[in-house]
Design goal:
mainly alpha; MetI-like fold; membrane; transport
Length: about 300
């Protein structure tokens, strides 16, 4: 008696239609990210590891230097001075943007009669192109005919040379705060709208005044919104070039790492020395700093969700 062994072939695994659909929807975003984000990032890092000049940039024969350019940039006193100015610019901008934006959000959250109209008026700086905003502030801070100095003169105060090299940092900080307030206002106002009003009523019945209600209800419940607002504000402020360049060309104390990289990559004139590799090094440092803060945000968000 013979036995016949039949071998049944396993059916081939088929990709589910839902998986294909998901990849189909994700493909345009993935392609976009690869072309406009990953590719420039890789190119920037590559340029920071080679010695690029005008000639080698065209010929593509830049010699490999490894971390030598990083060491050269970090070893210069100019780097540490610019880093300090960048930290002052970023920290002060974020503190005042957030504080003023939060105060305005709480104010407009009362929903009085002119609340919507006034809130819309505060969005104007956010809607203006940076070129126009920078030009406006440059005119307002003009030492001779600027609006700010004219107002100071009304009170008998001497004019201030806002755009002079030693004071230019404070000039661009003021302008950048003005630009960032609307963003903070919009995000924080949206967060306030999601807080249950019954909590405030219960707190009022318990005898809490407005200040106590803010610190015990508003501020704690706004913590997730605050974290993302500060993160986005930090990243945006760290890479700010336009408003600074229009107002001061990044000269004097107003030079930040972002404007320094722009200056080295494109120069201030036809005779300026172009330093592509050094500019790429500074750009890479900015990317790493932003990435570190993004990871800190994700870690803090994870801890908050665990609670």
């Amino acid at each position: 008696m013979t036995t016949h062994q039949t071998h049944t072939a396993k059916p081939a695994r088929r990709i589910k239609s839902t998986t294909l659909a998901a990849w189909g929807f994700a493909a345009p975003l993935i392609i976009y990210m690869l072309i406009f984000y990953v590719s420039p990032l890789v190119q920037n890092i590559s340029m920071s590891l080679h010695r690029y000049t005008r000639r080698t940039f065209v010929t593509g024969e830049a010699p490999w230097t490894g971390l030598d350019v990083y060491k050269e940039v970090i070893a210069t006193p100019e780097f540490w001075t610019t880093l300090r100015q960048t930290l002052i610019f970023v920290v002060l901008s974020i503190i005042f943007q957030y504080s003023i934006g939060l105060a305005l959000a709480v104010f407009f959250n009362q929903n009085f009669k002119l609340s919507a109209g006034l809130r819309g008026a505060f969005l104007v700086p956010w809607l203006l192109p940076p070129m126009i905003s920078g030009t406006i502030w440059q005119w307002m801070m003009d030492a001779d005919n600027g609006l700010i100095n004219n107002l100071l003169g009304v009170f008998g105060m001497s004019p201030v040379w806002w755009l002079q090299a030693d004071k230019s940092l404070w000039a661009v900080i003021i302008a950048n705060i003005w630009l960032g307030i609307p963003f903070n206002l919009v995000i924080l106002y949206s967060g306030l709208q999601n807080i249950n009003g019954d909590l405030y009523e219960a707190a009022s019945l318990d005898g809490c005044n407005a200040w106590q209600r803010f610190w015990k209800i508003t501020f704690p419940l706004l913590k997730p919104v605050t974290m993302i607002t500060l993160l986005l504000g930090f990243v945006y402020t760290l890479r700010t070039v336009d408003i600074i360049w229009i107002m001061t060309k990044g000269t004097g104390t107003s030079r930040t790492l972002a404007t320094w990289a722009y200056e080295m990559a494109f120069g201030k004139g036809t005779s300026a020395t172009i330093r592509y590799s050094e500019a790429s090094v500074v750009g890479t440092i900015l990317i790493v700093v932003a990435l570190v803060f993004a990871l800190i945000y994700l870690w803090a968000q994870g801890k908050e969700e665990e609670r």
